[in-house]
């Protein structure tokens, strides 16, 4: 058992018999004396990918999920799914596009730091590094002349993901992208 006050982003708990990962935590401190803090948690079911918002008191217990994180390597993929190799026992597994809906645009060949989330011996998803390096494939040309403000423009990356980048960047440059927000972080 784990208390709701001990949960943080990325932790996994069992809710209604299914593993759920914590995506967001917000704490509401009451103004009245004697009241306990409320923990508003957003979970994502690792099996169905549905999001659930729940509210707990700090000492409310939750069941810990039978869950394991293992390092994996991306091998190959097509429009229907991706295949990964477990770096501990070298076994391979595939995840469908639906299983990787949020992670899909960030997975590129040679990406390191991918973690597989395993529940009951079955891979149910992956966790990406906080930022990844990607190459700009297409963007509008930079406009000559200085500007007092920093302007951005859309850029298409190798996976088809479109992000806003500073105006001075051109095609072929490698940039870092935050996998949590999908925003430009800096040049790689």
Helices and strands: which structural class? mainly beta
Question: Which bin fits the share of residues in helices?
Answer: under 10%
Order of helices and strands: EEEEEEEEEEEEEEEE
Strand order, main sheet: write it out.
1-6-2-3-4-5
Instruction: Average the pLDDT over all residues and give the rounded result.
Output: 88
The low-confidence runs, each spanning 5 or more residues with pLDDT under 50, are none
Q: What is the β-strand count?
A: 16
Shape: flat
- How big is the Rg? 20 Å
Approximate strand percentage: over 45%
Largest sheet geometry: 6 strands, antiparallel
How far apart are the first and last residues' alpha carbons, in Å?
Answer: 42 Å
Determine the number of helices (DSSP H or I, runs of at least 4 residues): 0
Provide the descriptors you would attach to this structure in a database record.
single chain; 188 residues; mainly beta; 6-stranded antiparallel sheet; 0% helix
How would you characterize this protein structure?
The strands form three sheets. This protein has a six-stranded antiparallel beta sheet with strand order 1-6-2-3-4-5, with no helix packed on it. β15 (174-178) and β16 form a beta hairpin. The termini are far apart. The chain has 188 residues and is mainly beta. It contains no helices and 16 strands. It is flat.
Question: What is this structure's SSE topology?
Answer:
Blueprint: E1 2-3, E2 12-15, E3 18-28, E4 38-45, E5 51-57, E6 61-64, E7 67-77, E8 81-86, E9 92-96, E10 114-119, E11 122-127, E12 131-139, E13 152-157, E14 162-166, E15 174-178, E16 184-187
